[in-house]
Amino acid sequence: MSRRERASSVTRAFRAPRHGATVQVSSRTAPAPRALMSSRPPDPPLPLESLFDAAPEAWVALHLHSAQAASSDSMNALARLAEIAGDFTSRVSLEPPDAVLLEVRGSFRLFGGAQGLSRQLLERCRAAGYAPHWSLAPTPLAALVLARAGQGIIVLARDRLVGLLAPLPLALLRWPDAELERLDSVGVRTLGVALRLPRAGFVRRFGPKLLLALDQLTGAAPELRRPVACRERFRAQVEPAFELQTVALVLQHLEPLLKDLEHFLRTRQSGVDLLKLRLQHRKHPATRLDLRLATAEAQATHFAELLSLQLSRVALPAPVLRCELRSGVLQTLVVRSESVWRPGEYGGGAGRESPALIERLRARLGSDAMYGLCLVPEHRPERAFGIVELNATPSRRTSQAWCTTRRPLWLLREPEVLVDAPRELQLFEGPERIETGWWDGRDVARDYYVARDHSGAEIWVYRERLPPHTWYLHGVFG
Amino acid sequence: MGQANCDTTAEPSLERLLEHPAIWRGRSVARAATLSTGFTRLDVALPGGGWPAAGLTEILTVRSGLGELRLLVPLLARLGAQPPPRWAVWVCPPFEPYAPALIAAGVPLERQLVVRSAEPTWVIEQSLDSGGAALVLAWLAPGVATSVTVLRRLQLATQRSSTPAFLFRPLTESMRTSPAELRLIFEPQLMGGCVRLLKSRGGERRPLELRWQELNDVAT
Fold first, then answer.
1. Are both B158 and B134 inside the same structural domain?
2. Is B185:B60 a contact under the CB 8 Å cutoff?
3. Which tens digit of pLDDT belongs to each residue from B50-109?
4. Around Cβ A92, how many Cβ atoms within 10 Å?
5. Pairing relationship of beta strands A320-327 and A331-332 according to DSSP bridges
6. I want to staple A431 with a disulfide (CB 3.0 to 4.6 A). Which of A215, A271, A447, B201 is the partner?
7. Residue of higher predicted confidence among B9 and A453
8. What CATH number is associated with residue B134?
9. Which of residues 39-98 of B touch A (CB under 8 A)?
């Protein structure tokens, strides 16, 4: 707090009647004239009571105008305000239907004190199209009451607070109407009068809840506020001045969106592993692209690279009128150290490069073009292995062999009929009988042999046990 | 190197100089880093004692599935066991790699990545350059355009990334030139195969007859 600010706050405090003596005893005096001089000597040691007096918190309340609050999208407005507030502090709380509270004590130094911070905060709100009432006070409830009263003031010291609150009407606390009417009937209409009432009698007549509210108003009792969860998706669109004919132009126009996305993710220390792109055309249905990443990422350049790979697969049916970018659910960004060398180079480990391979392949070729292998405990050869979706990096888990008989390295997708099998093949291992599968309707009854064909290759063939005893080629010992 | 005998002091340092991997003299054996094949006699026959650790190897066969993959199974198993986990990329394999047989040979399934694509050379190059691959196996169908330039790019990619890559190509390609570091022809035989080096920096020129049983002696 600057000296001038403190001086003005003091005069303001003296202007207001001091009713707070019942609740809070303060012995703080006006600053010595010496302190106002420009070349000031070193500060004298602080008096002990100033340690208790310094409010540990500073809350800003942003209160929407009644017109804005009444409109149907007041929750949207609050969410937007909360998002703006999130740039100033991590402690943001909503007060539905029409207010947002943020605790900014820790951000003063960064934003140039209480005044600098509130100025910047209001500028951001105005830029977003909101002009909320605001106030800064040591307690959330006081800030809220002051903002509701339409007073755009900064109060940092708790001893000034009661004086400023005293003349305000009690209705600003938004207590139930019945209670307010009872208080009104005994002549209690302002906060100051309410604060001066004897505590024991107040509890007896109006209950402990209202007394707690009064204590929270002055800071005598702490108020815990539920922090707001920030918006969990990113959504932005760009409508270029002309129709985009080529993929390269689309990418160029997406670049600022990706930059925004990176900023959005960085402020949340999050990443996304899914991006949805929608390109609108004049007559054709919109082109949709889903970019799936192997791990959560937050780098604009990384997104741009993968998008360009994926867009290279797409033929635009018509010029693009509008691009819309949406993110998937935000995920915690695990920051890993990147290796100086490539894996394999000078013994460098697999760092971020490993997931990059899967991503790039998937972006260019699609998910169907690539798969991993797994083992299925099943006796029928064509079902003894499975195709699995790939993870970002190969897992460290290893599966165990369970089949003891010899199996070929290659399996044919569909067994191939061998017309002249007995004459051409030289069988030298077998038969191995593999049978049944009645439970899923794919019954088999086969005798498998290891054979050698005319070119000398080892192959895996079987003969149907049922007539007409057809011979099939099923695998190759490649 | 007749002059080396005259100056006895220069000889050891010159010899040491000539051991540099980048220097290769005619029929001498190149000293590039190699990976053991798992077959003792094949190791001896190959220059440097194994597959090139950072280079393109071409294996030429009459057709796919003659047993050429078995030459590489020991390498797949060994690289798969090494940390950090990296992919063994199978680009356009002619059949389905059969999981039970791979696991029985000690190849970790979790690290196998099968990619089917119309542009195999792009996949190979990406896999090599990403650094996420421990080795790349690729089957280039006869239809795929593989100019010398493309192969040279792949060879350079293997050197950049210090990752081995193996190309399986039809035997007809043996008549055409290739920048691959090692080219060999594989022919199947009873319980084994015959390996002939077509192009190598040193190594054995005579055909080498391998038996699959030989592997077991080494592995166990």
1. yes
2. yes
3. 888 888 999 998 888 888 888 888 899 888 887 777 889 999 998 889 888 888 888 888
4. 25
5. unpaired
6. A447
7. A453
8. 3.40.50.300
9. 62-70, 73, 84-87, 89, 93-98
The confidence score (pLDDT) of residue B128 equals 86
Q: Under a CB-based contact definition with an 8 Å cutoff, are residues A476 and B95 in contact? A: yes
Domain count of the fold of chain B: 2
Q: Tokens 């063994």 sit at which residue?
A: B88
Regarding whether B124 and B44 lie in a shared domain, the answer is yes
pLDDT at A55: 61
Give which of A59, A225, A32 is closest to A145, Cα–Cα: A59
Across the interface, of B98, B109, B188, the residue whose CB is closest to A374 is B109
CB contact under 8 A, B101 and A355: no
Nearest by CB to A412, which of B95, B116, B187? B95
Q: From the list B65, B115, B117, which residue is nearest A476 (CB)?
A: B65
How do B112-115 and B87-91 pair as beta strands? parallel
pLDDT at A134: 92
- Nearest Cα of chain A lies from the Cα of B187 at a distance, in angstroms, of 8
Residue A147's H or E segment, with its range, is helix A140-148
- Report whether B167 contacts B59 (CB < 8 A): yes
The CATH topology of domain A235-332 is: Dna Ligase; domain 1 (3.30.1490)
Average of pLDDT values for B20-34? 65
Domain layout of chain A by residue ranges: 3-218, 235-332, 410-476
Residues of chain A with pLDDT under 70: 1-55, 67-72, 229-232, 336-355, 391-404, 421
Residues 6 or more apart from B190 whose CB is under 8 A from it?
A452, A456
Query: Is residue B102 domain-shared with residue B151, that is, in the same domain?
Result: yes
**Domain containing residue B62:** 35-219
Query: In CATH, which superfamily holds the domain spanning A3-218?
Result: Reverse transcriptase/Diguanylate cyclase domain (3.30.70.270)
DSSP structural state of residue A47:
P
B93 and B43 in a common domain? yes
